[in-house]
Design goal:
Blueprint (H helix, E strand, L loop, with lengths): L21 H6 L7 H4 L5 E6 L3 H13 L3 E8 L2 H14 L11 E3 L3 H7 L4 E4 L6 H10 L3 E4 L7 H16 L4 E3 L7 H12 L5 E10 L16 H7 L5 H4 L2 H4 L2 H11 L5 E7 L11 E8 L3 E9 L6 E8 L2 E4 L4 E4 L3 E2 L7 H14 L7 H20 L3 E2 H7 L29
Bound molecules: nicotinamide-adenine-dinucleotide.
The site of nicotinamide-adenine-dinucleotide has 28 residues, from helix 3, strand 2 and helix 5.
Amino acid sequence: MKGGSGESGVSRRDFIRTSASAAASVSVLGSVNYGLHAAGSDTVRVGLIGCGGQGTRDSVALLQGVPGVELVAMGDMFPDRLQQSLEILKKEAPNGVKVKPEMCFTGFDAYKKVLESDVQAVLVVTPPHFRSLHFRAAVEAGKHIFMEKPAGVDPAGIRAMLEIADAAEQKKLSVVCGTQRRHTPSYQETIKRIHEGAIGRIVAAEAYWMGGDMLGYWQWYERGSLSEMEWQIRNWPWYTWLSGDHIVEQHVHNLDVINWALNATPEQCLGQGGRQVRNLGNIWDNFTVVFEYPNDVRVTSMCRQINGCMNRIGERVIGTKGVAEVDRGLIKGENAWEYKGPEVKPKELDQQVFIKSIREGKPLSEVKAMAHSTLGAIMGRMSAYSGRALKWDWALKASKLDYTPAQYGPTAHPVDPVAMPGKSELS
Ligand SMILES: NC(=O)c1ccc[n+]([C@@H]2O[C@H](COP(=O)([O-])OP(=O)(O)OC[C@H]3O[C@@H](n4cnc5c(N)ncnc54)[C@H](O)[C@@H]3O)[C@@H](O)[C@H]2O)c1
């Protein structure tokens, strides 16, 4: 078992050694011909919406990993976060950063300004709460979209994402999600073998994101002169209405792999958990959920953000002829196999897949799969919060849970109490 750290949680073998070149990671995609585009005649102009840690890392991955791309516009709620990001980007990818001061936008409407610019594509890397708001605006503006996971925080947001995904498809816009794993050869090869029957009939699976408290990865900011709402947005990972809680924000990576491997979504679930150590925001720090998939396949899902415990990040699929350790690129049993291909940079792969689809005029539509994986995670959270078993159809079609506030702005926004099983209502 491997210990994991940080947010990406992709296993060691998925990272290319730092000395390896971007060209090596390009090669795993097959025939990507960047030569035609490097001269700049069809340079892709990109805008970044959400200039925090991941927005900056995604931009570095884009500019270092894909020739012929320029970052020309940036938008963030907070000026200091945008400036920090711009400084890092100028150091890490000096040739690709072409952001003029007048193309830096801040505040609640920053995303609109980025979308009004002449960018062809945007990276949407804002907190999960804003996903459908920003996705809808980007599709309306006719931009190609790379978006980070998860797809939202509540069933209303997921329904919106599925509807907007249809509009994006009609407009032939490419929409790629920052799943990493779905674009990583070791995962692709392992799951291909599962689908081909290497482990026989699937009978069960396990998904884990057991890690530390994430303080240090994200900060806890003091309030200063911020309004209640701005302060919560500043501290988004720690509030359910903004992050979806860590089962949604983080563990969705593993649940997405399970949906992919099983080629299905859960029919129902029963979860539990709590807040054993955490004392900020209103999210929990541990969940255990059993998801029931078609054909009576049960998936055990565990996620925890508590320091000093054993870490485990990964996915395991159990079949009648063997077991796939998906995160390790390993199949045990009758058809034993181990991935031995080149190691890669998953975040660069995300960006290469995205830009390739734009350049080749072959739009990708990855958002529905991510919306489904996110809904599973949301269901798990709702079941654990309420202490009740939940059905997929109810969550998808009937749940009225919608964390959207009456308005966004520098206003009051009372925090919901920490969920209490047996007392917290389902809606
Ligand atoms: N795929 C991965 O490995 C991975 C890793 C980390 C984070 N993420 C995802 O990336 C997203 C961002 O996470 P992060 O770690 O960068 O967080 P972060 O706090 O470092 O950055 C978020 C940024 O968005 C800005 N922001 C907040 N609300 C905004 C709004 N309405 N409009 C414009 N800007 C706004 C914040 O000021 C901040 O700069 C999340 O969805 C998270 O789940 C993915």
